[in-house]
Amino acid sequence: GKKGDKSRGALVVLEGLDRSGKSSQSRRLVSYLEGLGISAELWRFPDRNTSVGQTISSYLSNKSQLDDHTIHLLFSANRWEKRSSMEDKLKAGTTLIVDRYSYSGVAFSSAKGLNIEWCKAPEIGLLAPDLVFYLDLPPEKAAERGGYGGERYEHLDFQRKVAEKYHLLRDDSWKIIDACLPIEDVQKQLRDLALDCITTCQSGKPISQLWL
Ligand code: NYM
Ligand code: MG
Questions:
Q1: Domain 11-202 superfamily per CATH
Q2: Residue 181 Cα to chain centre, angstroms
Q3: Thymidylate kinase-like domain location, by residue (predicted)?
Q4: ipTM more than 0.90?
Q5: What is the Cα–Cα distance from 181 to 208, expressed in whole angstroms?
């Protein structure tokens, strides 16, 4: 393009149950992309560094109690407070690899019994991911991996409900990845699909918004 034009980065999200491997896979994906000279950053939600994020963190570690609707809106607010910096990064050409996003927000809250449409509403207008990796692992397998950290929601029965809700949220941006496969095989799939997506975004795919 013209001098000063910059092709945009891709918004790539990893979703899945607790212990499905999102955090390690996203870390590795970012290192891989950086190694290729692609500008990429690792982000995660909840972002526990903001004041909203600290409230969320205290709720997750059972240090405080909040009404289900209230905490749902705080998770959403935690994404809204990052929206403009995400957009700035993408426009500056940086690819964002994001460990959890709005789908976690809706899946976890609706698994508690909240209405799914009500859960989606505050996410409307957030940046839509260009690609969502769902690391698909049966809840029983995830539980066998151990290391549930003892946070709220980290129980097999609840994770089963979350998995059902995730199924309802699948759309065309999703790639279902078999997370039972060895770490290297999962990573290989993520790398290939992410590179394709980055190319598509570079060649002018517009940034869109969630659930409009
Ligand atoms: N979680 C995460 C939600 O309930 N709503 C959300 O919007 C997000 C982003 O927080 N069990 C839940 C899912 C996890 C927990 O996430 C903490 P992590 O990735 O373990 O830090
Ligand atoms: Mg966790």
A1: P-loop containing nucleotide triphosphate hydrolases (3.40.50.300)
A2: 20
A3: 14-189
A4: yes
A5: 32
Spatial contact of 66 and 57, defined as CB atoms under 8 Å apart: no
Atom of ligand 1 nearest to the CA of 23: 19
Exposed, middle or buried, 51 (CB in 10 Å: 0-12/13-18/19+)?
exposed
Nearest CA to ligand 1 atom 13: 104
Q: Whose CA is nearest to atom 21 of ligand 1?
A: 46
Q: Note the pLDDT tens digit of each residue in 72-93.
A: 999 999 999 999 999 999 999 9
Handedness of CA 130, 60, 168, 136 (dihedral sign): positive
Task: Tell whether pTM > 0.95.
Answer: yes
Atom of ligand 1 nearest to the CA of 48: 21
Is 105 close to ligand 1, i.e. is its CB under 6 Å away? yes
- For ligand 1, atom 20, name the residue with the nearest CA: 18
